[in-house]
UniProtKB/TrEMBL annotation:
Positions of the Ribosomal protein/NADH dehydrogenase domain: 2-71
Main location class: mitochondrion
CC terms in the record's Gene Ontology section: mitochondrial inner membrane
Keyword annotations from UniProtKB, A to Z: Electron transport, Membrane, Mitochondrion, Mitochondrion inner membrane, Respiratory chain, Transport
Localization terms from the record: Mitochondrion inner membrane
Protein name according to UniProt: NADH dehydrogenase [ubiquinone] 1 alpha subcomplex subunit 2
Keyword Transport part of the UniProt annotation: yes
Keyword Electron transport among record annotations: yes
Native species: Bugula neritina
Matching InterPro entries: NADH_Ub_cplx-1_asu_su-2, Ribosomal_mL43/mS25/NADH_DH, Thioredoxin-like_sf
Pfam families, per database record: L51_S25_CI-B8
Length: 71
């Protein structure tokens, strides 16, 4: 899916550095055909949040990750 190319590239380029800075934060990457790309965050007490990142730039993806990490 072309809409997920930026997110796929973002993960390839940034996963290692993000994990080094956040070693205790679990990060799960799932690939699935035909599903719009989303970033999910799970918090205490079962709270979840997600952001649809279809056709976003790498900078926008990073901004969404930062916003989710501040909740």
């Amino acid at each position: 899916m072309a809409a997920s190319n930026v997110l796929r590239d973002f993960i390839k380029k940034n996963f290692v550095s993000i994990k080094k800075v956040n070693p205790s934060t679990p990060i799960l990457v799932r690939e699935c055909s035909g599903i719009p790309p989303k970033i999910w965050a799970r918090y205490e007490f079962g709270e979840e949040a997600s952001v649809l990142v279809s056709d976003k730039t790498s900078d926008q993806v990073l901004k969404h990750i930062e916003e989710l990490s501040l909740k």
